[in-house]
């Protein structure tokens, strides 16, 4: 599997995302948990991710924005809940302002990201849970699937170097 696979489950208000990466588990884990590396792949081109602050620990927050080609900024944050090193982490992901205050305009999402060694490298599985099927559709309509798949392609490039 070299492409990102999305499976939607509206009845259970969740989406499952799977992707295999041709790199060792430790390297893939670091790319998901180190802001200097996240900034290099998280945003789909021509956008770029810029971290304002990050504390990868339970209760810690990654506050960042995606900057578009015209200089526009879309702020977001991940608040880390449960971290099992080299296995998984959970976070609440939300759109926000540059101070980290949640946006009422967009829904927040519960992410569980799991990492497993595979025969060709590392398999990553993300389960995103929403408050309602409508919230899931709203995020999809923003171009989430295309953008996240493109970001995974960026990660492939980063891991190859």
What's the N-to-C terminus distance?
Answer: 20 Å
Q: In total, how many beta strands?
A: 8
CATH architecture: 2-Layer Sandwich
CATH topology: Alpha-D-Glucose-1,6-Bisphosphate, Chain A, domain 4
Helix proportion of residues, in percent? 25-40%
Count of alpha and pi helical runs = 4
Order of helices and strands: EEHHEEEEEEHH
Portion in strands: 35-45%
What sort of overall outline do the alpha carbons produce when their principal axes are compared? globular
CATH class: Alpha Beta
- Specify the oligomeric state: single chain
Rounded mean pLDDT score: 96
How many domain modules? 1
Structural class: alpha+beta
Spans of at least 5 consecutive residues whose pLDDT stays below 50 are none
| Largest sheet composition | 8 strands, antiparallel
Backbone CA Rg? 15 Å
Spatial strand order of the main sheet: 1-2-8-7-6-5-4-3
CATH superfamily: START domain
Task: Walk me through this protein's architecture.
The chain is of the alpha+beta class and 161 residues long. It has one domain (5-160): Alpha-D-Glucose-1,6-Bisphosphate, Chain A, domain 4. The chain is built from four helices and eight strands; from the N terminus they run E-E-H-H-E-E-E-E-E-E-H-H. The chain has helices at 25-33, 35-41, 133-141, 144-160, and strands spanning 5-9, 14-21, 48-54, 61-67, 73-84, 88-95, 109-118, 121-129. A hairpin with a 6-residue loop joins strand 3 (48-54) and strand 4 (61-67). Helix 1 crosses helix 2 (35-41). The protein is globular. The chain starts with a strand and ends with a helix.
């Amino acid at each position: 599997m070299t492409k990102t696979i999305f499976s939607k489950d509206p009845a259970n208000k969740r989406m499952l995302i799977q992707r295999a990466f041709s790199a060792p588990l430790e390297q893939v884990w670091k790319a998901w948990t180190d802001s200097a590396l996240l900034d290099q792949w998280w945003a789909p081109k021509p956008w770029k991710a810029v971290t304002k602050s990050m504390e990868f620990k339970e209760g810690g927050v990654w506050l960042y924005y995606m900057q578009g080609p015209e200089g526009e900024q879309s702020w977001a944050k991940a608040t880390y809940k449960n971290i099992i090193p080299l296995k998984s982490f959970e976070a609440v992901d939300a759109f926000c302002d540059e101070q980290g205050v949640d946006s009422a305009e967009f829904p927040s999402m519960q992410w569980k990201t799991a990492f497993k060694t595979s025969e060709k490298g590392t398999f990553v599985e993300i389960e995103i849970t929403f408050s309602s099927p409508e919230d899931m559709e709203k995020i999809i309509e923003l171009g989430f699937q295309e953008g996240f798949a493109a970001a995974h392609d960026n990660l492939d490039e980063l891991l190859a170097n």
